[in-house]
Amino acid sequence: MMQLLICIGILVLSIAVYYMLGRAFCIWCGLHPVWPETACVGFFLYFACFQVVAEGMVFTKQKLHVLGNTWLAVLAALLAAAAAIIYNKRKEGGSASVAAVRGSRPSKAVSMLLALLVVAIVCECASAVLFQRNIGWDFAYYIGNMTTSVETDTMYLYDGSSGLLRDTIELRYALSSFYMNTAWISQKTGVSALVLQKYVVGVLCVLLTNAVAYSFAMEVFGRDRRKAAVLVTSTIVLTVFWDVYDTSAQFLLLRNYEAKAFCANVVLPMVVYLLYRIWKNGSDRRIWIELFLVSAASVPVSMSSVVIVPALTVLMLLAHMLVERQWDAVMIRRAICCLLPNICYLAVYVCSVKGLLVVEV
After folding, report:
1. What Å distances lie between residue 8 and 19, 196, 201, 255, CA to CA?
2. Is the pTM value of this prediction over 0.85?
3. Exposure pattern of 211-243 as b/e (b: 16+ CB <10 Å)?
4. What percent of the chain shows pLDDT beyond 70?
5. Are 39 and 18 in contact (CB under 8 A)?
């Protein structure tokens, strides 16, 4: 029971941290998203920053507790800066912002639809937790990597399946800091990495998936909350009751604890959402900044993003030029900037595969 309460606390605290970071980033960039998108932006900002700290320590073979302590200090500084940005913004807005919030309150009908959406999301989270039944090699390996890291106070030095000390660090997994984030939290709180990953991270995947879907729907329907709530609720019903293994929903309900589930359900939909906005208004520099953030954080969240995210961006750019029948040099330069993080990760990974970059244990 105590571990369950701690897990709920970690989930709530994580969402609060993501929202705070996302809110500060949006203020800094001049973005005005709906609040679910703000939380998603904060999620990507969190892992973009965490990756900078984690990868340096992985490559220098530091202890896991050193990563945890260092990241806590960095995160505290980031949250302090975020709090200052938010406070200054509210101080500047004053009573005008309060009046704007009051004027934007939904009607009773919309409130009921939003309440129904919340109930549907809770049911989907419950389905993801109660009907979690996927136990395979991937499950054993990922959980093994985290639990071994916690027990040995190391990062990617021991094999997740056998528990034996490696000869070299496997960059296929070590280039993404996603699982080490769970490992340091497990070490600090004493909660099993298995429990944290399967339930806290699994529920977080469901919540972020619906946050992206709601943000996308609000953009398509011109910020009509009624239509957005109906659409997202409908997709949840289809996801929960259409229990076919070959659908993408299975990654959300059965394998939501895996990094590739975040790639399929959070990263890629977020990229498509931003590309849709860029298609509508490619001259808006702020959207490109948001896309750059998501691209930079895509590999830290999942190595599966290393090729897929650049491919989506290139395809959109080519399609846009074909439809508009013009060569947009500004869009091309901005797209190349967004591609750079993934290209760098891909270059490092290819070098490791070819034996040109070997990190010995």
Report:
1. 17, 10, 11, 20
2. yes
3. bbbbbbbbbeeeeebebbbbbbbebbeebbeee
4. 93
5. yes
